[in-house]
Amino acid sequence: MLKKIECFIQPSKLDSIKDALFDAGVEGLSVTDVRGVGRQRGYTSGEKPKKKVKFLPKTKLEIVVDEEIVEDVIAVIKKLARTGTIGAGKIFVVPVEDAIRISTEEVGKSAIF
User: Fold this and answer.
1) How far apart are CA 105 and CA 84, in angstroms?
2) Rounded CA separation 81/11 (Å)
3) What CATH number is associated with residue 58?
């Protein structure tokens, strides 16, 4: 079965995570620059919280992998994305029903690898 890993990380962590993911067997990924807010409402440690929500820049990674390497991929992201402070990010894992490579019409795992 295929799994989609979506994670939100600090933009400064992207290069090291990307390199480690390819070393861990990831064949491809998508990256999007996003802005978001979590429980801290956009305020970092040391800032005085205000009522106004402050959106912070994040980087979103979307990765589809075989379930056999999901735990390895998560371990890489957790290790390298960790900052020790609030706002380091989130990881979500969801099942992928199917995948189709448009150019060759391959379906399933062969469309990913």
Assistant:
1) 44
2) 10
3) 3.30.70.120
CA distances in angstroms from 80 to 36, 76, 108, listed in the order given: 20, 6, 29
Q: What is the 3 state secondary structure string of 49-84?
A: CCCCCCCEEEEEEEEEEEHHHHHHHHHHHHHHHCCC
35-54 burial, b for 16+ CB within 10 Å, e for fewer? eeeeeeebbeeeeeeeeeee
89 CB-side CA count, 13 A: 26
Per-residue model confidence as pLDDT tens for the chain (113 residues)? 999 999 999 999 999 999 999 999 999 999 999 998 887 766 666 666 666 777 889 999 999 999 999 999 999 999 999 998 888 999 999 999 999 999 999 999 999 88
Q: Residue 81 has which token pair? A: 């994305």
58: domain range? 2-45+53-112
Cα 93–chain centre separation: 9
Whether 1 contacts 91, CB under 8 Å? no
